[in-house]
TrEMBL record, chain A:
Subunit and partners: Heterotrimer of A, B and C subunits.
Source superkingdom: Bacteria
Gene that this polypeptide is encoded by: gatA
GO biological process, alphabetically ordered: translation
Pfam family, one: Amidase
Name of this chain's protein: Glutamyl-tRNA(Gln) amidotransferase subunit A
The EC number(s) this enzyme carries: 6.3.5.7
A GO molecular-function descriptor: glutaminyl-tRNA synthase (glutamine-hydrolyzing) activity
Native source species: Paenibacillus methanolicus
Keyword Transferase: yes
Family of this protein: Belongs to the amidase family. GatA subfamily.
UniProtKB/TrEMBL annotation, chain B:
Region listing for Disordered, in residue ranges: 65-95
HAMAP family tied to this protein: GatC (MF_00122)
Protein name according to UniProt: Aspartyl/glutamyl-tRNA(Asn/Gln) amidotransferase subunit C
Species: Paenibacillus methanolicus
Protein task: Allows the formation of correctly charged Asn-tRNA(Asn) or Gln-tRNA(Gln) through the transamidation of misacylated Asp-tRNA(Asn) or Glu-tRNA(Gln) in organisms which lack either or both of asparaginyl-tRNA or glutaminyl-tRNA synthetases. The reaction takes place in the presence of glutamine and ATP through an activated phospho-Asp-tRNA(Asn) or phospho-Glu-tRNA(Gln).
Family statement: Belongs to the GatC family.
Key words of the record: ATP-binding, Ligase, Nucleotide-binding, Protein biosynthesis, Transferase
Length: 485, 95
């Protein structure tokens, strides 16, 4: 069995039993990257020297005995929009191609405190804007299941690296589906926690009212462990939720008897690939057999979510990305005429097409005369979408549907048609607007490409989401399938 | 509402972007398509609905005003494209 297919507890036991060292794990990671990353292109920057130095330290600590961190010795990859002190953080943008952060983001600090080993920084759509990784300004990441296909996005590198066995786990960030959709396309487990559960400090902001960091792993148990390590209040993030963090792994009982599941008819209706629908219905049969019940429900404002999202997220992005002015960091254009010209040239040379498009859309939506018609209207529709979820959750414990309407598409297939691309997020976006947690777990294949099941919970009820995902996983083997690379 | 090339030029100016002629044309078409799609929001009656700017019930998070360690001048300037005498240096603001 490959090292990274072992359960976390098993790895721990082998480390303690001296059958394995952290150096072995780190070697395995870099060897696998060496073998596969020419095809997958998940990584933007490797932290080889740093990772090997940490391995030496951790192995010393292991020999000395004593307390070990929750994620001790586990090779981890980070989406390249999480700032890492002394390690390049580019957001897959040319604007930040030389950005060498002076601090670690909170999630990064927490991973270090849990003693995982940072292997490198993972490819993404530029500034997390996109759903295919084709918007990386460096190179597109490819789907490990079929390298002619996209891995999804924007955390495409994070999902592909885990699927390809290059790292034990990774972190991604999700604004409208950017953890869940690539996890679905790559056949791995991706969790978007409740908005505010994981600190955004040190996550380069895209849309601040939606951005949320979460784990991408091979199984649900690992997802619970990683979430445990990164969740928690942070005074450095004013939108951090000050809530008590429960124990997540103890929720994984395998028991879903009596759970009430709502299945939105809008999520399995028009536009959903029949094979995806079939896989979701088969998963619901598994839940039935385990003693849960499900019935069809309605989230009536689903069809408005994509429109509201693109107005809101682009508006927030246009404001957040104003900081990239070529003054304090990033790449400054040569020979500007004056200060304003320097801003203009640096931004125009540094940003790719999708980033410019969203800045333009957001700037327009916020501009004088259009604010009420677009931005305020979209915020009101967001309220209606959130109310849809509130109403269903009065009667149901969970909402289940697909993570994406189709499996992964071919590289290049949807380039040049932003609207079609945006509609891939039609069942992840409403969840983001409502701010509630959701996980994507593998639930089958269509023509050799993975399908994701999306399990959505009440705000801060990650325990029930993880419990249901874990129970399903115990009775299926989709998550144990590995791509041939 | 439909966006003209002139609108695109105006918005680009606001956003501090310099677009090529080709980009201007492309964005005019694409933004029109996206905004046309966004007009479906107008099918909904949102009279009396409060806007949601944020899902958590938190506002104005305060902390004690106390001295804390901050980054050194040298560290703060580490990524500066240009600097002089411990400060960020920019081109002339006024001609």
């Amino acid at each position: 069995m490959a090292l990274f297919d072992m359960r976390l507890q098993e790895v721990h036991n082998k480390l303690v039993g001296k059958e394995l060292t952290v150096a072995d794990l780190v070697d395995a990671s870099f060897n696998r990257i060496g073998q596969t990353d020419e095809a997958v292109r998940a990584f933007l920057t490797l932290n080889e020297e740093g990772a090997r130095a940490s391995a030496v330290e951790l192995d010393k600590q292991l020999a000395a005995g004593g307390e070990r961190g929750l994620l001790f010795g586990l090779p981890a990859g980070l989406k390249d929009n999480m700032v890492t002190e002394g390690l390049l953080t580019t957001c897959a943008s040319q604007f930040l191609r030389n950005y060498d952060p002076i601090y670690d983001g909170t999630a990064v600090k927490k991973l270090k405190a849990a003693q995982s080993v940072l292997i490198g920084k993972l490819n993404m759509d530029e500034f997390a804007m996109g759903g295919s990784n084709e918007n990386s300004s460096y190179y597109p990441t490819r789907n490990p299941w079929n390298t002619d296909y996209v891995p999804g996005g924007s955390s495409g590198g994070s999902a592909a690296a885990v699927a390809a066995g290059q790292v034990y786990f990774s972190l991604g960030s999700d604004t409208g589906g950017s953890i869940r959709q690539p996890a679905a396309y790559c056949g791995v487990v991706g969790l978007k926690p409740t908005y505010g559960l994981v600190s955004r400090f040190g996550l380069v902001a895209f849309a601040s009212s939606l951005d949320q960091i979460g784990p991408i792993t091979k199984n649900v148990e690992d997802s619970a462990y990683v979430l445990q390590a990164i969740a928690g209040y942070d005074h450095m993030d004013s939108t951090s939720a000050n809530v008590e963090i429960p124990d997540y792994t103890s929720a994984l009982t395998g028991d879903v008897k009596g759970l009430r599941i709502g299945v939105p008819k809008e999520y399995i209706g028009q536009g959903v690939d029949p094979k995806v629908k079939e896989a979701v219905l088969a998963a619901l049969k598994v839940y039935e057999s385990l003693g849960a019940t499900w019935e069809e429900v309605s989230l009536p404002h689903t069809e408005y979510a994509v429109a509201a999202y693109y107005i809101l997220a682009s508006s927030e992005a246009s404001s957040n990305l104003a900081r990239f002015d070529g003054v304090r960091y990033g790449v400054r254009a040569d020979n500007p005429d004056n200060l304003i010209d320097m801003y203009r040239k640096s931004r125009s040379q540094g940003f790719g097409a999708e980033v410019k498009r969203r800045i333009m859309l957001g700037t327009y939506a916020l501009s004088s005369g259009y604010y009420d018609a677009y931005y305020l209207k979209a915020q009101k529709v967001r309220t209606l979408i959130k109310q849809d979820f509130d109403q269903v959750f009065e009667k149901f414990d969970l909402i289940i549907g697909p993570t994406a309407p189709t499996p992964a598409f071919r590289i290049g297939e949807q380039v040049g048609d932003p609207l079609t691309m945006y509609l891939n997020d039609i069942v992840t976006i409403p969840v983001s607007l409502a701010g509630v947690p959701a996980i994507s777990v593998p639930c089958g294949f269509a023509d050799g490409l993975p399908i994701g099941l999306q399990i959505i919970g009440k705000a801060f009820d990650e325990r029930t989401v993880l419990r249901a995902a874990h129970a399903y996983e115990q009775y299926t083997d989709h998550h144990q399938q590995r791509p041939q690379l | 509402m439909s966006i003209t090339l002139k609108d695109v030029e105006h918005v680009a100016k606001l956003a501090r972007l310099e677009l090529t002629e080709q980009e201007k044309e492309q964005f005019t078409g694409q933004l029109n398509a996206i905004l046309k799609y966004a007009e479906k929001l107008n099918q909904l009656d949102t009279e009396g609905i409060e806007p949601t700017s944020h899902v958590l019930p938190v506002t104005n998070v305060m902390r004690e005003d106390e001295n804390r360690e901050s980054v050194s001048n040298e560290t703060a300037l580490k990524n500066a494209p240009d600097e002089e005498d411990g400060q960020f240096k920019v081109p002339a603001v006024l001609e």
